Amino acid sequence: MSGASVSSNGLTMTVTPRKDDSITILDHVDFHAEPGRITGIVGPSGSGKSTLLYCLSGLERATSGSISLLGHDITHMRASALTRFRRRHLGFVFQSYNLITSMTVEENLALPFTLRGRRLPKQKADEMLRYFGLANEKKRSVTMLSGGEQQRVALARVLLSDADIIFADEPTGALDQESGAKVMQVFKSLAMDAGRTVVIVTHSGEVAGQCDQIVEVRDGHVLNADTESGARI
């Protein structure tokens, strides 16, 4: 599919927990996500949704198949080169937040910029913290925050970046309805106004309903890739 900034062909992930006992988590998956759109990955627990997200983003190595990000084949890219590529082009939102507990909120926001040899845009960061109701928390250690507040910090961090592609695993799972709505509004702005590619794994029918495209995964297979949301969750 022309124009796809995230794509895979024949993507397969097999694990062998015991000798002569292999399990196929992803089975020859073809996937495409285009810039300027939010693509939602849905399906029941254990279907392979998160594994697909991690393989597409290069955080896990697939057993076979190919993956292209922004026209770059990352399938056999060296680990060091892949790390540099992720830092420059990709943003991540994890269920586990992945915040540095020894740092303050502001220091966590600055970390991706520091890794790139850049400075945190403080005005933009302050605006993002106000948007998420965290304006008074930026000097506090993230360990002093609630789970929902930590998730908002993690979201603010990735949304502040100039990542071309954002991968998000259940980004609204720990948030109240109002905060979740704000997150989706920012994602829409990044996709529609800034032309970014957003790929979201979700169990939420409300989140899926706001995606431009739905990819349904069942038992490691992609069942459909609809241009209209509403696939079964």
SSE layout and pairings?
Blueprint lengths: L5 E13 L2 E13 L4 E5 L6 H8 L7 E6 L2 E2 L5 H11 E4 L11 H11 L6 H10 L15 H14 L4 E5 L7 H16 L4 E5 L3 H4 L4 E6 L2 E6 L7
Parallel strand pairs: 3-8, 3-9, 6-7, 7-8
Antiparallel strand pairs: 1-2, 1-4, 4-5, 9-10
Helix pairs in contact: 3-5, 4-5
Sequence of secondary-structure elements: EEEHEEHEHHHEHEHEE
What structural class do the secondary elements suggest?
alpha/beta
CATH class placement: Alpha Beta
Strand order of the largest sheet: 6-7-8-3-9-10
Largest sheet: 6 strands, mixed
Helix proportion range: 25-40%
Q: Name the overall outline.
A: globular
- Tell me the CATH architecture: 3-Layer(aba) Sandwich
Oligomeric state of the chains present here? single chain
Strand content: 25-35%
Low-confidence stretches: 229-233
Distance between the termini: 25 Å
CATH homologous superfamily title: P-loop containing nucleotide triphosphate hydrolases
What is the gyration radius calculated from CA atoms? Answer: 18 Å
Number of strands: 10
Q: The CATH topology is what?
A: Rossmann fold
Total individual domains:
1
Average residue pLDDT? 90
Individual helix count: 7
Describe this structure in words.
Helix 4 packs antiparallel against helix 5. The protein is built from seven helices and ten strands. The chain has helices at 49-56, 79-89, 105-115, 122-131, 147-160, 177-192, 205-208; strands at residues 6-18, 21-33, 38-42, 64-69, 72-73, 90-93, 165-169, 197-201, 213-218, 221-226. The protein starts with 5 loop residues before the first strand and ends in a 7-residue tail after the last strand. Strand 9 (213-218) and strand 10 (221-226) form a beta hairpin. The protein is α/β, with parallel strands linked by helices and 233 residues long. The strands form two sheets. A six-stranded mixed beta sheet has the order 6-7-8-3-9-10, with helices on both faces. Strands 2-1-4-5 form a four-stranded antiparallel beta sheet. Helices cover 32% and strands 28% of the residues. One of its GO terms (cellular component) is plasma membrane. GO terms for molecular function: ATP binding; ATP hydrolysis activity; transmembrane transporter activity.
